Amino acid sequence: MSGPTLYGLAAALLVGLGLYGVLAQASPLRRVLAFNLMGAGVFLMFGVAARRGAAAGLPGDPVPQALVITGIVVAFAATALAVMLMRRLAQTRAEEAAAAASSAPAEHG
Amino acid sequence: MKLALDAVLVATLLVLALFSLAARQARASAIGFMGFGLVLALVWVRLGAVDVALTEAAVGALTGLLLLGATSLATPAAQPSRPLRLALAGLCALVAGGLAFLVLEAPDPAPSLAAAAVEPLAALDLGNPVTAVLLAYRALDTLLETVVVVLALIGIWSLAPDADWRGAPMVPGADAPSPPLRLLARLLPPVGLVVAVHILWIGADAPGGKFQAATLIAAMGLLVLMAGLAPAPKLGNTRLRALVVGGPALFLALGLLGFLVPGSFLAWPEGLAKPVIVLIEVALTTSLAVLLALIVLGPGARRPRA
Hints:
The structure holds 2 protein chains of 2 kinds. By secondary structure, chain A is mainly α. Chain A has helices at about 5-25, 30-50, 60-100. Chain A has a single domain, classed as Helix Hairpins. In chain A, helix 1 (about 5-25) packs antiparallel against helix 2 and helix 2 packs antiparallel against helix 3. Chain B has 2 domains: about 1-70; about 115-305, no CATH class.
């Protein structure tokens, strides 16, 4: 078995693992993390395709490699947005709990 | 021998992935994910994609920082029932099996655009084909991507309460930084900035480029803020906002100018391709560095009442 094939199989496993995590995990943080694992698997698959397409003296096809670089940055942006949504949700819940506990009129902050 | 190295890397990668999925504590999970990112960067080197390896290592650190910061929010929630989990595992095994089949049955020789990507390099005066793909052949992807990052920042900022959204974001740990952190925050940024400029500049001919450089600069900025050496900027600041949109706006403007000179969107005039690409790279690096740092910092917030 060649190196790229091995990495390709690892990528398939990562996609499977990540997908299971996204669907079966209960905590939002772990879901985001699992989504990133799945993304890593997809990127790795692109990397394997790039490696297999090595030609013209290059170690790999630069087109899928450039797509992966773009993908990594977009995945980071999406992860950040998800984490910030979780933070806001936690804040809102804490505010609601505090308001319910003091049974005073809900004040902002 | 080489295959043994690949096998060890793959085994480590999968173990870390499993660990970060199954670790009982959210914190251990996030740290496992950071380790996963570093091993993944090594895998990218083994696949001959050094540009991707640099991006993965740099961006992975920022993602790890975000996830670590969110571990305190993890609330216990009910797991799905056992039959449902079994069904999901079966479905995911099916997906993984299908992908594995595709990997094993991939066409040989593999289709490749490598030759087509190398051929015009001399005309563009570039040595790194990945940079050429990002800024010449597929510049539209890169333009849209920077716009996506700006949109993510707008989305994050819009999560602030109405009263606070123009205020400075809260910086974790800045109130009581540890002395070693303060020392590091004084020593590292000059070195980091020089390395970032180097990575940006050689990106035309060797692995490197704007994403890697921008992430490094963002990390240096975050280090200074987290050590409490500088206050976080107010998000309503006009100059800050101009920095954020300046790079994408210049990219878009030069792309529109392409209608006039070579005759199509995002086409660079002949002979001027290299200077235009360098100009865009520098402008995008500045904007992306500010963008990435602001994304990690999050929405504007009021100081917590003591």
